[in-house]
Amino acid sequence: MIFIHGAGGSSLTWKFQIEGFKPFYNLLLIDMRDHGYSKDLQPSYRVYDFDIIADDLLRTIDHAGVSRAHFIALSLGSIILQKLSSRRPEMMKTMIMCGGVFKADWRISTFAHFGKFMSYFVPFRWIYDGFILIVMPRRNHKFSRDQYRKQSLKLAPGEFLKWLGLYKDFFSVVGKFYDQELKTPSLIVNGSQDHVFLDAAKRYTETHQPLADLVVMEGRGHLCNLEDRKAFNAIVLEWLGHRKHQAPGSQ
Questions:
Q1: What burial class does residue 87 get, using C-beta atoms within 10 Å of its C-beta: 0-12 exposed, 13-18 middle, 19+ buried?
Q2: What is the spatial distance between Cα 136 and Cα 149, in angstroms, rounded to a whole number?
Q3: DSSP state of 67
Q4: Order of strands, sheet of 28-30, starting from the edge strand that comes earlier in the sequence
Q5: Which domains, and CATH codes, for the chain?
Q6: Backbone φ, ψ for residue 3 (5° rounding)
């Protein structure tokens, strides 16, 4: 099982999934370029696109000798997973997307353009914190916000701006994936309070049945794997066929 974190996160994003999944799978947790311990990767690039990020991951996966796996991705990581799926569909046993991103609404589009403009005037940390607050605004989202803020401290300002620049490639990647035929069994898990991304996840699932399944975790936000790790783990394990793991109501 290969784990892909979101922008600003790291492999530590999945620390609550390791214990739940390791009895059943070999786990490969990857820090993407500039995140966690993946610093100063070569070749370096002045700007990023999703092909560059996908190339990094594929080199790592090939180096580990993995030819086929279950993939689980979080937030922006779901877009990278979509890119991997288009490049290596034969590698995908299943795709699991937590807080999956399938369309960019006006809020994300506006913020990306505004954030790029404001990066010339204010510290990037303010921009990142503003984005987190837009996506996870409620009091019960505080733990998730704090976790991502803590992990994002390893991002340097220049690195952050390169990742922010991915919005230029963002729309074409999600557009192609949304419109193409789904061939891999896929589970989408969103919180009922994921007000930015949930509606698009619902539409995607309806369009791509029967291979796409959606589970909505009531009272949870965008990073529902952090908010209610026990329930999230049980949902995924049950979907993968480990029937004895019935999802509890909450942690």
A1: middle
A2: 12
A3: S
A4: 28-30, 2-4, 69-74, 92-98, 186-191, 212-217
A5: 2-239 (3.40.50.1820)
A6: -110, 130
pLDDT tens digits, residue range 47-78? 999 999 999 999 999 999 999 999 999 999 99
Instruction: Identify the three-state secondary structure at position 241.
Output: coil
Supply the DSSP string of 91-146, one letter for each residue: GEEEEEEET------HHHHHHHHHHHHHTTTS-HHHHHHHHHHHHS-SGGGHHHHH
What is the value of pTM for the model shown? 0.89
Task: Give pLDDT tens digits for 208-235.
Answer: 999 999 999 999 999 999 999 999 999 9
Q: Which tokens go with 77?
A: 């990581």
Q: Number of helices (H) and strands (E), helices first, in the chain?
A: 11, 6
Q: Which segments within 31-68 are labelled E, that is strand?
A: none
Residues in CB range of 61: below 8 A, 6 or more apart:
2, 28, 69, 91
